[in-house]
From TrEMBL, chains A, B, C:
Alphabetized Gene3D superfamilies for the sequence: Metal-dependent hydrolases (3.20.20.140), uronate isomerase, domain 2, chain A (1.10.2020.10)
Domain of life: Bacteria
E.C. designation(s): 5.3.1.12
Keywords linked to the UniProt accession: Isomerase
Organism in which the protein naturally occurs: Gryllotalpicola kribbensis
Catalytic activity: D-glucuronate = D-fructuronate
Transmembrane segments: none
Pathway annotation from the record: Carbohydrate metabolism; pentose and glucuronate interconversion
GO MF: isomerase activity
Protein name, per record: Uronate isomerase
Family indicated by similarity: Belongs to the metallo-dependent hydrolases superfamily. Uronate isomerase family.
Amino acid sequence: MTRNVARRLYDEVAAAPILSPHGHVDARVLLDDAPFPDPATLFITPDHYVTRLLHAHGVPLDELGVGVPPEDRDGRAIWRHFCRHWDAFLGTPVRFWFESELSDVFGLDEQPSEASADRIYDQLEARLAEPEFRPRALFDRFGIEVLATTDDPADDLAAHLALREDPTFHGRVVPTFRADRYMTPGTAAWAPALTALAEASGIDTGSYAGLIEALRSRRAFFRAAGGTATDTGVLTPEATPLPDTEAERIHLAALAGEVSTADASAYRANLLYRFAEMSVDDGLVMQLHAGVHRNTHRPTFDRFGPDTGHDLPAVGGYTLPLAPLLAGFGTAPGFHLVLFTVDETLFSREIAPLAGFYPSVFAGAPWWFLDSPAAITRYRAAVTDSAGFAKTSGFIDDTRAFCSIPARHDMSRRVDAAYLASLVVTHQLSEDDALGIARRLVDEQPRHVFKL
Amino acid sequence: MTRNVARRLYDEVAAAPILSPHGHVDARVLLDDAPFPDPATLFITPDHYVTRLLHAHGVPLDELGVGVPPEDRDGRAIWRHFCRHWDAFLGTPVRFWFESELSDVFGLDEQPSEASADRIYDQLEARLAEPEFRPRALFDRFGIEVLATTDDPADDLAAHLALREDPTFHGRVVPTFRADRYMTPGTAAWAPALTALAEASGIDTGSYAGLIEALRSRRAFFRAAGGTATDTGVLTPEATPLPDTEAERIHLAALAGEVSTADASAYRANLLYRFAEMSVDDGLVMQLHAGVHRNTHRPTFDRFGPDTGHDLPAVGGYTLPLAPLLAGFGTAPGFHLVLFTVDETLFSREIAPLAGFYPSVFAGAPWWFLDSPAAITRYRAAVTDSAGFAKTSGFIDDTRAFCSIPARHDMSRRVDAAYLASLVVTHQLSEDDALGIARRLVDEQPRHVFKL
Amino acid sequence: MTRNVARRLYDEVAAAPILSPHGHVDARVLLDDAPFPDPATLFITPDHYVTRLLHAHGVPLDELGVGVPPEDRDGRAIWRHFCRHWDAFLGTPVRFWFESELSDVFGLDEQPSEASADRIYDQLEARLAEPEFRPRALFDRFGIEVLATTDDPADDLAAHLALREDPTFHGRVVPTFRADRYMTPGTAAWAPALTALAEASGIDTGSYAGLIEALRSRRAFFRAAGGTATDTGVLTPEATPLPDTEAERIHLAALAGEVSTADASAYRANLLYRFAEMSVDDGLVMQLHAGVHRNTHRPTFDRFGPDTGHDLPAVGGYTLPLAPLLAGFGTAPGFHLVLFTVDETLFSREIAPLAGFYPSVFAGAPWWFLDSPAAITRYRAAVTDSAGFAKTSGFIDDTRAFCSIPARHDMSRRVDAAYLASLVVTHQLSEDDALGIARRLVDEQPRHVFKL
């Protein structure tokens, strides 16, 4: 009975357009519309969801093409590694996404295995050469209405601007302003980032005042290019204002190469507070992805760089560190703050209670390690009591794997339908109300939360 | 099949009398037995479960009557806000309680909406004027056998005493001793609280020894008035004894306006320990509601006061901070300590293991943000393994919304029936044993735990 | 439908041999093959799962035989306590194990109660006198293929060696190297432990270098006696190397009775790191059971000693404290590190993400307070997304209750079958794949992880 209700709810939204308000696809892929490269480069090498589990089963990252120049990679050998370890993915969302991609996008129904590896590879390679498997054709076939990318403030957004002016492309690809690298005074990357931002904005970033002005200027540029949101990734979301003079002092000290850890933290916490202040002023939605230890395995980082599978969830917390920000802007009209976590204890203890009081706060969908049927169900069960459905963000796919976008949204729709059905059959919701919520979650909700 | 078993279990307890061992209804409501005021004042304005989610959807608290003198409130306008935002409550327990109240208590089956708002308001207003909707009539109709209130030690319990002597009232309304405000030396509220307590007890509270004597005296008074339990709300439940001389020193320093944060904490931790000591002596059950950051949004607190929706769950912990108290009294005969949490990670990690060893400790029912079908189910699944059913507290409604009491207990009975049924169909429990447990949870268990 | 699939999956593995890679049975029980003593001594007194919940219901530990010399115990009186409080165990895994033992092992189907206590006791006593209820007969009947014990490095493993040479015994009983007591410089137990180790190894442990050499020597001895693994229990799993000179300094200071708390911690963290280093060298699997506060109720510890029910779960954490160890050995070929926790928030936040990247790391099965159907299901739901099935440890029974071994493994097989079935009916897994995983979890997986 639950299954029948779930099926009816899912059918209502299965074909709805995809709104993807947070992800990591490169806009240039759609601008260029070149054929995708070989299957390994499309599906394996750049996807740390896939490479990390293969690595966990003993396949060295370089044998998966990570850190290897494209011209030196052996796509077929990489593909064979993946197929040989297919068992490692059973029960994981990667298996679901992957089978969906093979079947729904490429029409291939054979299960990966050592025996089938070459056959599937050949078929995929052939498909990828066909015009209907180019990025724009897939964009249309996937029914993507909005696709948000993630971009540095110094980015010229050339691809976004060109796409907007391209009369042959009808999709909406919007940039997202992510200023993380300006928050790290005292690291080697900080001063070069300031320089790049100064060049992009034409504003001297040698002072804190200049940095703030440059960031505001670039936010306006992003808005003009269609952007509706910002994103920030931090380990801990302290957001406490500093007097300008104090921020200026730390800025100058950091440029001089002399900044204490405490000052660097205070500087970062001040910037996070200022980002909220800017959002109140310019209306850009503020997303927060907090609580990830980045690059925890030093030997892997040294050899292969970031995003290679050893970013790990931290113990999270929003209520206390965000208190100053929420005291300042929590009830500011039009301010939208979307909170994401990879520590699921926060769902019922912090995020839902915050979203259930502050007009500005929305409970971000499960992210990264938690974007699976089981974890999404736990999220709904933990968040709905205190925050209902109308204070949740709607699904985000957060992916750089373009072909997995429909599978990811489809999974979310199925899981939400099943969750809603469980409420219907236990008389916690009428089926009519559930239908309304199912539609809302894929349409009105993300449009409202992300101001699309 | 599960549903059929659950139905049989629920039928067994659906009509059982309500034992409400912890809540916030005012005893005077039952003493006066005056008609309830308008629907907004009954259902919306004083219920922070309702106002917080409306606030989260952008309705200012004053438009809901919060902080507005009753004579200046527009009940109908408040009611319209609520009905217009009915969607915000879908999937939440508020929606369940509310529909139950409308339907089961008032016989109204129309769903709230902008269109139905005035119609429902009119019907409710008419009902509230009828004699069978006065507090005492509802008390009888609800089948309430015991109703515990929450009271300050300085309270004269006049309403409780009058109800006990009123030959026309047959219910049992018992006070609960809650001495939180005496635990905060260094705050502005502390010295006036001491004064009030001195007046009520006739004992000088200018010394720590006097405070202890006055508290013991008032506990005796509460017991004489029918009280069986105390309650204490703290952020962290440190409970460590101080030598009397040290407690005395801090007491006098605080009265002189000179108390350090560390001393204030030590003083509070000592009092919590002494509360347990007093319970061992006088038999009053000790309830602990720990782990809530109170009044986190300063602007709202300054304008609207406490209990306005921005109390937020903290990271909890009982095992370490309670260790001295449990070393002292954990195995004391007759001592009952009921532990509540809003951090549900404590259920399996701390509360169930403690209740599964200490004769004194009982696992308190899910509270506040966790009093929903999903969270109650998680509580049972997390606690039963280590503590079984017989070391859990039985349901508490914790409400100031008098008309929601039967709906809240009914929800608990349904959820426990469903949980027990899931154990029956997976052969973890016989149906006979499940029936016995279902009955026990609504009767013997709360009677035993709260000494009713 | 789910039930039918679960039944087919369970049937596939119900009769598979038992691999028990972690537990606390005494090898001498199998060497001697003497009849088990009376039912109370077999089932109640030594099992802190049972005694703790009886204690929580007010039965003093000494009335359960704890801390009482065997000759002074009244087995029948102990047994009556247990039967009278049978209700306390309803819904707990103890009830399931116990009923399974009574029914499947001893053929008794009467439910314990005050009325049935003596009857069951008499029947059990009669059974225990029969030859087919001796340890070796049960070992065969239970289908145990491998049974790992837990042993001190100074142990001479005489029982293990004798069993290996006994032509009449065909089972495999292997020791596990557990060196906890060498990690606690500054405690009274430490110096005597060093002395015992020196005697066992013939190596002077008066220096840190000597301790390391002695431990390596005993590990080789354990391996020669069939051991494949080590185990370590710590409160927090810090694992940070010290320079040898620094470790030597602390070792000598501790022997002189002058070691600071900080130095003792650093020493322990260094040893944990060195244990990993040794495992990389000699191939012994490294198990970590972290996060338990031991002996929290001082009065009970003083009177009854350790393992008497008041060990309590701590807030856990692996990602940060293990970082140095994982930087050093996380990708070392052949290194196996199995992480166990009693803080279930770690499953999705730490253990699964670690097991999903590091080739060496495996997600240990739920342990102690979490070895119940509900908690095992939560473990699977939390771990599978990030780590799949092939990076989990397979079930461990962790028991000193020999007769409960088959019931515990049977419960695990049923729960895994039900979990897999839930994936099958929601199309997250084919039934064929589920069958393969079910088989793998009871066979290939523990063989691989524990190198059996």
